[in-house]
């Protein structure tokens, strides 16, 4: 039996609307046999046919696709046993750069001049009469701001925050909505447009009007009739607009105010005006992963404080919106505030929100009603409600994050590690919010490059990140500076000098332009992501080389620009001040240059750029030699010792083989002297367990991983964390935050995935699962049990199918099972050193341990 699974167009299993001229197809296979592989596949689209042995990112190369057209892709696969399977995948083309039969419109009378706040939302309205039978109807819409559509009183689409966050000066998405079944003979189409990222307040300096002076809408309703004719209803000056709708305030940081007593007939409607935008981005069919509602969260408890405030505990820190079912009286005001932690007296701790108000305010109409914010989101575990009795409301919440399929799973015999895995996944969900953010609760929520640079491998184990990362990397390219540097946040969107250090290249943060596409390539196997990013990678690494080039002798390869222009060993817990983290930048930056230039050499080889490959490999080798020569005694001992200083050269292969073990021994000595506590900041944390485990100190790695003292991963779990903290010492043993004046302006989030990069160790060493060829066409399975673990299991959906693996230790015997997908090969190494090679199928092996 052969079956086709997960047949995708542009990495979507269904619902694809694309403007790509050569959309990509991919598929996985399943079989109940062993040693099954794909002999060939025949793909037919639009009269074009190809026969291929590839399964990943197979591009369409037929005649030009027409806009606004539905297509079907037909696939026939034959395996090496002669079995065949068939499948179809439907997709649709969008506008394909067809000129818009619509104008950008706004409220021409609205002059938005206030600072540090978001504009009042606009509501647009159009009444549309149809006299013929409708065969097909689509809305194509985008905005400067964020929008939501309602057709005949019913919400259109499931998206939040459309059109999404992009580098608006170059890229803007539009959404396509099928409204065929929603149209009637007489229709009312409403569009509410809030400030969002383009117009509203953003970044912790609360910049607004970064991209546009006020909101604007661009929309077409295209209707195809059964008689073969068609009609377009586009935004123009015949549309009406009002500024006094029920959504009175909407801001990502401050929240939303909704007045349910406001009725459409009471609003001050007037004709819209054409808008001339300040920028003219290319507008493309949505190519990212839109934000939608996922898990419905119910509170685990409700506490009534002395002043009558109701404090709801959802038992899980997450990013999302409150969901209220209310029995209310007209004019009754219900206020919901949000926080990640409580003060000792049971009130919300909002100090760490900084300027963010994180408040939803709802003014009731009479009777039963429902409210959930649509133009903001919060990061919270606790919600404090005033203005209603517990009997008057039913409280829930929706977790919001980008539309990402969870592709990986991990569990083991240690319950605290399982909770840590859940924390990693929840922090990822909370911060994969159209862009990779740093935190979901305070006045930030920005696309910090350093966070995703170190977390990308873990993210790619847990989720299919393809569309999400491809979209964000388009913005990385767009935002790259002429000097080659990558801004610290992407999109920049108001985060100006000196924070972005625009003339500089910044280690590890800028490294995202190399590390993120590399992680995605390893996970998915689509070489185009490397090809697209290659010019940006070269430009960045060349900039790093320039800034590291000041000095004499081997110091010409030591990156020693002023520490204040770097982040260094960011939030390393062994030193208390920001300036001390930054002071380690000579070590982190130099190791970064070795790593990015070495990876660039590998990428150049893959792309056939052999001259570049040789050049960057020589650079990488010289930087490694300089690091060892300048920073160590030549015998594996750092002249200035701290954990990250050892971790980076060990993981990046910078020590000569003859002293590598001594260096690892010195790292292990530091770790033991530190009572097995973590001492690394952002750059070292993802790699410290690998640096130990892969260099003769497996048990030391497990002792650090399983440590429950602060600072450690499991200390957070012991203190009740349900997500990953930004700072290792986020709470002391009494549950109080000890953060003082360390130069970061009360920088503490309890939902921040960076140190959750340890999750890669779960997959790669505890399970032992790593790709040998990109996309897991071939992969290795080499589990490294330790730490008293008696079993572990996990799965990973690869482009070729699902890998399942589990192992257990009983009575001195190690037993392992693995399912190898069709068309792939596994090299299996058991703990006794014995090796097996397995083609597709299910296998079980054991050895003495």
What is the CA-based Rg, rounded? 28 Å
Mean pLDDT across all amino acids: 96
Named CATH topology of the largest domain: Glycosyltransferase
Fraction of helical residues: 10-25%
Q: State the total count of DSSP E strands.
A: 42
Report the major sheet.
10 strands, mixed
What does this structure look like?
There is one protein chain. The protein has 849 residues and is α+β, with helices and mostly antiparallel strands. The protein is 22% helix and 31% strand. The protein is globular. It has 5 domains: 92 residues, Immunoglobulin-like (Sandwich), CATH 2.60.40.10; 177 residues, Galactose-binding domain-like (Jelly Rolls); 110 residues, Jelly Rolls; 320 residues, Glycosyltransferase; 79 residues, Maltose phosphorylase, domain 3 (Sandwich). It is built from 15 helices and 42 strands.
Strand and helix map with partners:
Blueprint lengths: L1 E8 L6 E3 L5 E8 L6 E8 L2 E5 L5 E2 L10 E10 L4 E10 L11 E2 L15 E8 L4 E11 L1 E6 L2 E3 L14 E8 L7 E9 L1 H4 L16 E10 L4 E5 L5 E3 L4 E5 L3 E5 L10 E2 L1 E2 L7 E4 L5 E7 L3 E4 L5 E19 L4 E7 L19 E5 L3 E5 L6 E9 L6 E10 L5 E5 L2 H17 E2 L1 E2 L12 H14 L3 H14 L32 H13 L3 H20 L30 H5 L2 H22 L3 H22 L11 H9 L5 H17 L14 H6 L4 H8 L7 H6 L40 H8 L2 E3 L6 E4 L9 E8 L2 E10 L2 E8 L4 E5 L5 E4 L2 E8 L1
